[in-house]
Amino acid sequence: MRITRQQNFIVANVPDERVDEVVDVLAAIGLALDANHLRGRAVGCTGEPHCNFSVTETKQRLGRLIEHLEARFGDAISSLGLQLDGCPHACAQHWIADLGFQGTTARDADGKRVQAYDIFVRGGLGPDAQIGKALFGAFRARSSTRPWQDSSRAGSTAAAARTNRSPSSRAGRATRSSASRPGSSRSRDAYARRRNEHGAVR
User: Fold this and answer.
1) How far apart are CA 138 and CA 103, in angstroms?
2) The domain spanning residue 111 has which CATH number?
3) How far apart are the C-alpha atoms of 100 and 108, rounded to whole Å?
4) What angle do CA 19, 23, 29 make, to 5 degrees?
């Protein structure tokens, strides 16, 4: 068994006569081979609570985003690259995703700090490689799927992530500053304070 950098795995050297058996076993544990290809293309960093750099949870959030996108768009988003990070260090490389999320924090109506995400579109590698463009800033996690709830925005948002990238959009690259001293709660608090002082990405 081999693990890939896209967080998938390859089962190698399966005898021809046992391929169907292996496919059935994988399906029984929730790894059906006929699943939407979005699931194989999506990548999430370690996130909270296992990474001291991260300011947001990532794995379960990524799973909920995938389920929502599948329910909303079906096979139309099978070629979409979805990547989610819990901080600016970008271990999941959200900068080069069709649809990328970077964890940050925001304040709710009561002034309480809550998890949030900056959302980017049209990142990628290859001949037209570029950093993703900021679409939404400090989007609070409780409503992280709402950009697609509004039918008038749903088509344009998904299309924005899939549309052919233009080199001219490189001029709009967004930048981030990471916490001053990684690995401590103080660094995460400092990052959150700076993020709230500077406001949302525009």
Assistant:
1) 8
2) 3.30.413.10
3) 23
4) 145
* Residues 60 and 133 both lie in one domain: yes
Residues 97 and 193 in one domain: yes
- Look up tokens 């900021």; give the residue: 134
Same structural domain, 107 and 28: no
Residues 98 and 122 sit within 8 Å (Cβ to Cβ): yes
| Boundaries of domain holding 168 | 37-198
One domain, residues 58 and 109:
yes
How many domains does the chain fold into? 2
Strand partners, 147: none
Same domain, 6 and 42: no
On whether both 41 and 23 belong to a single domain, the answer is no
The pLDDT, as a whole number, for residue 168 is: 40
What's the pTM value of the predicted model, to 2 decimals? 0.62
Backbone phi, psi, residue 166, to 5°: -110, 130
At 24-82, the pLDDT tens digits run 999 999 888 888 888 888 999 999 889 999 999 998 889 999 999 999 999 898 888 89
